[in-house]
Please model this.
Amino acid sequence: MLREKRILLDHGSGGLATKKLIEGLFLRRIGNPVLSRMEDSAVVDLPPGRLAFTTDSFVIDPIFFPGGDIGSLSVHGTVNDLAMQGASPLFLSLGLILEEGLDMDLLEKVADSISRAAKEAGIVIAAADTKVVGKGQADKIFINTSGIGTLSSVTSLGVEKARPGDKVIVSGFIGDHGACVLLARSGLPFEARIKSDSAPLNHLCKRILAATRPSDVRLMRDPTRGGLATVLNEIADASKTDIEILEESIPVRPEVQGVCELLGLDPLYLANEGKCVVVADQEAAPAVLEAMKQDGLGKDAAIIGEVKAPVDQQGPKVVLRTKIGGERIVPMLTGEPLPRIC
Amino acid sequence: MLREKRILLDHGSGGLATKKLIEGLFLRRIGNPVLSRMEDSAVVDLPPGRLAFTTDSFVIDPIFFPGGDIGSLSVHGTVNDLAMQGASPLFLSLGLILEEGLDMDLLEKVADSISRAAKEAGIVIAAADTKVVGKGQADKIFINTSGIGTLSSVTSLGVEKARPGDKVIVSGFIGDHGACVLLARSGLPFEARIKSDSAPLNHLCKRILAATRPSDVRLMRDPTRGGLATVLNEIADASKTDIEILEESIPVRPEVQGVCELLGLDPLYLANEGKCVVVADQEAAPAVLEAMKQDGLGKDAAIIGEVKAPVDQQGPKVVLRTKIGGERIVPMLTGEPLPRIC
Model:
């Protein structure tokens, strides 16, 4: 047990106080045989195959929000980046930057949440580091996670692989995370009704790949910062195609739509932390949809559009067919920034 | 080229501004075929063998200091953590947290420095992420790096492997980094005379392992935060041994000693960012020393002490034999913290 109720600069010194923080708070919660060796590097054995490697920092404000917190989010975010590449997540690293004066209770809750999220995703926390900066030099807690996963030799997904005729499938309601965080910040009374969708997608992605032939799934992407619109633009851009999506097919919760109308936002640009977008061969699309629906996290999945040959010379674009029969171009996020959404 | 002279919140939105920052500033400097694919995860091929995996965040203040900056330091720190385990560093991830308003020029310099340091160490930047927080919510720039390296099947170093009779060898002058940073902060006029020792130790470590039989080198450690004293205590603790070091054998630059006297510090507790401590079988110690001296970074290496059987029941301890023939116990760092030293 730790005596201190708050984080002190001393906890980042690398000396005895750091050791006590690690042993008294972290190892009890996130310890495992790899991490607890406390070497400069973890040494791990990997099954044969190619490796996926990714990193992400989390600076979300507020730290706790309906449906999650910075701890679970930092595990889900990196697990999902591995899963989108078709990799099985194996090892996670954890880099914490703490502000002097941070409540020890808060840190304990975040560590518990990291531990639960890692167990649920089946990823082992192999390496960790803690730094402390002075009061006012960071905002409470920032977390970096990096992840390693293995890829089967037949999996070869790529953002440039969408082809005209392919279907675009999304694994469920979009915009929940972004709407939840914005509401939590706004102080509006109906905050609790929208939960973040933060979740680990590795099991869902595994189902999708198991249900299809190797090259039928062209790519998977999680529409986090910048939302669905930004991811679709990245795909169109890299694949040199247009993408047409149907407004009436895109799953948006009525309450998210309501918040968007209230705050003047578009759900297509809101962050998601537990959804994936899959581009698949049109004949394989029903199998992808079915695989998603068999997973709890994909029960509201839908085919939302199609990849098209590019129609004009000004470059690839994403077009939305609206419910009333019009069409509008959906560019990458360029408007008002939504800072610290993840 | 980027139009903006400062980092805006928009650069962290995940949309078009983020894309322009990445393409216009980072990829030109640190881009390579792996990173430039811009997937959610990098996909890399690894030679067969076990894997070392490590993470470290860097929050050093000031960002630029004699002998380096936060960019080179963030590469060296993680390369060295891999090297200490006997691993060959292969892939690095980079997680940046930027404060709104940060000078774009400063960021360009840091990116250039990261690029140079990675090339020198022979490590490929495989994954990267950038977040922006509001003004006053972080102090300019924080960097997390995680690293992957491969280990030969015969290398098995461990902090618990020191045995009585083993020699303790350090690769050069201690305390340079800590003294340099403290001086740079103090505003004292002789700042420029002490340079940080920040450097990649992977080539040095490779020489050491090549010059010895597999089990002769028990462990390697880089004495960063907490300094030599803290690392020796960790070794004594994990190996259940005492360690005796000779003050007259420990390489300390006269100017570092001078700064320590001026500021009331002990060089044994100052951070190093380009030194390693090796514990080796006594018969192999001369070969370790020779291998260090053959490397530019180890030319001032010295055998500084010996591992001993523990003499009392109160647990292992580190003892310093002073120049005047006395002895004192050297505990882990417990005194005044030196915040943001790395």
Summary: The CA atoms of residues 225 and 271 of chain A lie 5 Å apart. Chain A touches chain B through 83 residues (CB under 8 Å).
